[in-house]
Design goal:
Belongs to the thiamine-phosphate synthase family. Condenses 4-methyl-5-(beta-hydroxyethyl)thiazole monophosphate (THZ-P) and 2-methyl-4-amino-5-hydroxymethyl pyrimidine pyrophosphate (HMP-PP) to form thiamine monophosphate (TMP). This is Thiamine-phosphate synthase. The protein has 360 residues and is an alpha/beta fold. Helix 2 runs antiparallel to helix 5.
Length: 360
């Protein structure tokens, strides 16, 4: 049937086996879109993405004619009982959504090809819809990353260590959701392999993985984003390569650098170094005055960084920080999981107090 409800001249000649393929994949695509739509509606509260999903689902429903439904033969379908262990378990919402987006894309490709035998308009419609789903997937990933970034209060910036993977995983087990891999001296092959392993480790725990400095390596391993220093490439250049769906952060040491980062479109900024730190030996500490400035003026997520540990954390709170980035406090910790939990509990407490003060 065409969208206008009139059967195409090929429709009555379509073999029953092709009708079964079309029926199964219309079901598959509609079900997958509905799963994504529910998260856009209830998880993201995003009306635009929800409406996009709804429109696609309804368009597919109009193609699901009585002729195609009548071809269904579930009892004799050899694929009904086929499954794979990876389909039986999902670790997080992201895996549910990614699996169903892939499912929709595959089903639309099948509908595009076999639909040409039934009604060329169906093939054309599904081709256009497949591109819509690709765009939806990009927008969705961007939205997911931005939501995680906004929710993150503790940011681990790694330093070279024989315990690198051990420390990062222990921190992730403590609830860490944002990790930056920073290594200025290692060769590119080693750095690439390490970054790939860290990305998978972070994603296993539902955390964001950011690569320091190197846009090319971030692109190669499909990192969630890149962090740029003041001497690195312009944000506009990084955005052109990485696209709108990935996160770009910028280090800032002064109000002027912050204003420039905001104008260039940074997704977040580092504010510091607050205190003297071996990581930035050439930088004069920006101090708590800059933290206070950020608390009053910065409209995007910002992380106080530089010499922050359990002893200096209260002072940083007093300056107005609600997010912090740490290096040595975690990388040199004997028990990274416990230290992570301590930082997160303190940050959660200060954020609750701030919200209460704002409301009262």
């Amino acid at each position: 049937m065409s969208l206008e409800g009139q059967p195409h001249h090929n429709a009555h000649l379509t073999p029953p086996s092709v009708c079964r393929i079309l029926d199964a994949n219309l079901d598959r695509a509609r079900e997958g879109i509905r799963i994504v739509e529910e998260w856009c509606r209830f998880g993201l509260n995003n009306a635009e993405l929800t409406n996009t999903c709804k429109q696609m689902r309804q368009e597919l429903g109009r193609w699901h004619s009585a002729q195609l439904r009548s071809a269904r033969n579930t009892p004799d379908d050899p694929g009904v009982d086929l499954t794979h262990p990876r389909e039986e378990r999902r670790e997080n919402v992201e895996q549910v959504l990614q699996a169903n987006l892939c499912r929709v894309e595959e089903a639309l490709r099948v509908l595009e090809e076999y639909g040409k035998l039934y009604d060329p308009d169906l093939g054309r419609a599904c081709k256009q819809m497949r591109y819509q789903v690709y765009t939806l997937e990009s927008n969705f990933l961007a939205d997911q990353r931005q939501q995680k970034l906004k929710q993150a209060s503790l940011y681990l910036v790694t330093s070279p260590s024989d315990r690198l993977f051990e420390v990062v995983e222990a921190a992730l087990q403590g609830g860490l959701t944002l990790v930056q891999y920073r290594d200025k001296d290692t060769d590119d092959v080693t750095r690439l392999n390490t970054a790939q392993k860290l990305k998978h480790l972070c994603h296993d725990y539902g955390a964001l993985f950011i690569l320091n400095d190197r846009v090319d390596l971030a692109l190669a391993i499909e990192a969630d984003g890149v962090h740029l220093g003041q001497q690195d490439v312009p944000i506009s250049f990084a955005r052109q390569l990485l696209g709108s769906q990935r996160i770009i952060g910028r280090s800032t040491t002064s109000p002027e650098e912050m204003r420039r980062a905001l104008a260039e479109g940074a997704d977040y900024v580092g504010v510091g170094p607050v205190y003297a730190t071996p990581t930035k030996q050439d930088k004069t500490p920006a101090g708590l005055d800059y933290v206070r400035y950020a608390a009053e003026r910065c409209p995007i997520p910002w992380f106080a960084i530089g010499g922050i540990d359990m002893n200096t954390l209260p002072q940083v709170f007093e300056g107005g920080a609600t997010r912090v980035a740490v290096v040595r406090a975690l990388m040199q910790a004997e028990q990274p999981t416990l230290v992570t939990q301590y930082f997160l509990s303190q940050l959660a407490w200060i954020n609750r107090m701030r919200r209460r003060d704002e409301q009262g």
